[in-house]
Structures are given as C-alpha cells and as structure tokens.
C-alpha cells in the first residue's frame, strides 16, 4: 500500500532536520516544509527544485531520504550559484533561487608592503642601470 503522502513528507522533513541539525524553533527558516516544497495546502502541493532533486536521486526512499540528501549536497538545485550544502549551512533555502547566502566582497587594501616592494624594485633597477652605464663609460 505504501506510506501516506503526509507521513512520507514528514519523514523527509525529519530526516532533513536530523541530518543538518536544523534548530527546532518555529522561526528557523529551514525548519519548515518550504525547504523542499514550492507550494503547500490549501494550494495543490508541489515540490521545489531542491525537493525534486532529492526525489529524483537514485538513493531516494520516502522512509529514509538521508542518503539522497547527501548525494545532492554539491548540486546547485535552484541555480543561484550556491551549492545546496552551502545554502543549508547559511540557513537559506536550497530550492529558492531568490534566497541565497549573503556574501560581502570587500576589496583588500593595498598594503604598504606591496607599495614598498614596487619602490624597492625601481630603486634597485636604477642602481644597476647607473653602475652599468658608469662601467661602460669607464
């Protein structure tokens, strides 16, 4: 007969929260069915891209989906340029392309050391050139 849909989805949800140590608090973003589902009742239920990747993985089993979840960790299910495991570790939804880890790109300041290295190179070149010219004249 199989596992009823609601119970099967609860198993998947429980496997996910156990595998990734998702906090058991109501405001944790990954502690919802939205991690795998695109729509929930009363709308017709549908899986998001992450949920579809779990379900289409060869290791998928409704009673124990942990191996399927591990198998797709390095995929970018939602196409937002972040792999699933990075999204999970950053508490963003791996099946929602508009929810991704916030990254900060701060340019590294030019260090005085780098500037000094350039200056020293110019001085060394000038000294070598000076002695080469002097030797040639002498």
Indicate the topology.
Blueprint: H1 5-19, E1 37-39, E2 46-47, H2 49-56, H3 66-71, H4 84-89, H5 112-137
What would you say this structure looks like, in words?
With 138 residues, the protein is mainly α. The protein is 44% helix and 4% strand. It contains five helices and two strands, in the order H-E-E-H-H-H-H. It has a two-stranded antiparallel ribbon. The radius of gyration is 28 Å and the shape is rod-shaped. The mean pLDDT is 84.
| Spatial sequence of strands, sheet with the most strands | 1-2
Can you tell me the residue ranges where pLDDT is under 50 for at least 5 consecutive residues? none
| Amount of helix | 40-55%
Distinct helical segment count: 5
- Total beta strand runs: 2
Structural category: mainly alpha
| Global morphology | rod-shaped
Largest sheet: 2 strands, antiparallel
Give Rg in angstroms. Answer: 28 Å
Strand content: under 5%
Q: What average pLDDT do the residues reach?
A: 84
Distance between the termini: 102 Å
Order of helices and strands: HEEHHHH
Tell me briefly what this model is.
The protein has 138 residues and is mainly α. The protein contains 5 helices and 2 strands.
